[in-house]
Amino acid sequence: MRRPVLRSCCWAGRWLRPRAVSRAAAARPVDLAYNLINGRNSETPLVFLHGLLGSKSNFHSISKALFQRTGRTVVTVDSRNHGDSGHSPVMTYEAMSLDLQNMLNKLELPECILLGHSMGGKIAMTTALQNPRLVKKLVVVDISPVRTISQTAFPDYIAAMKAVTVDATLSRSSARTQADKQLQLCIKDARTRQFILTNLVECNGQYIWRVNLEAIANSLDYLLGFPDFNTPFTAPTIFLGGVNSSYISSKEYPEIKRLFPNSIIQHVPEAGHWVHSEKPYDFINAICAFLGTS
What we know:
Elements: E1 10-11, E2 14-15, H1 23-27, E3 34-37, E4 46-49, H2 60-70, E5 74-77, H3 93-106, E6 112-117, H4 119-130, E7 135-141, H5 154-163, H6 172-183, H7 190-197, E8 200-203, E9 206-209, H8 213-223, E10 237-242, H9 253-259, E11 263-268, H10 275-278, H11 280-291
Parallel strand pairs: 4-5, 4-6, 6-7, 7-10, 10-11
Antiparallel strand pairs: 1-2, 3-5, 8-9
Helix pairs in contact: 3-4, 5-8
């Protein structure tokens, strides 16, 4: 039986294909999927933004733990072209920030504490720099406001995902096993493969990647960069990296301090790029300390 190549994700029953980006599409916000836990108090809500190829489920346990520790309302968000959110050929940080601001407006949240990992950290930084009144405090997880192309393996991940083929007749667990074996050819780290495989879903009788791979691939060069800003964000900010990761290094400190002068930089021991999943207890403690919560 022919095994279909996993191309782009389908949205609302349609296959998405690359197309020219119109000015209207570039300016139109995308509706974002989110999970919300209503807080026990009126403290400023926490809003979580995942990284590239991730989803709101990446922060499921962390968000519940921080809700228990702080009593705050917690919102976890799927960025455009990820998870259950809408798709668009546009993947600029300005556009993704507009999505977020549109969602917060609909939720009637005039102020929040933004926490973003990797790509989500760049969306969070862009939002804070564009609309500082919206962000009371900022948490940036293992990313810097600079170009990161020399440090990332994401081009290899996307190429590996595009090459995967899966039998449509398989059960979901068998489909994941089949895809995993193929990803092993290019991606040796089992944790990374499991992270990527969270995007493998069944749609209309076929297995697909729910992320919009075409839009991401076409925008990857931009996603690995960061927009130019001249006016700093002066509210409290923490850059929280992993000791075993190079995404927040001393060479980036001057740019961090230029754009975020009221920031502190911490590294979690024995953690890599996925700080929150590798060292969740240390991660939660660091966030609570930054928020002033016991």
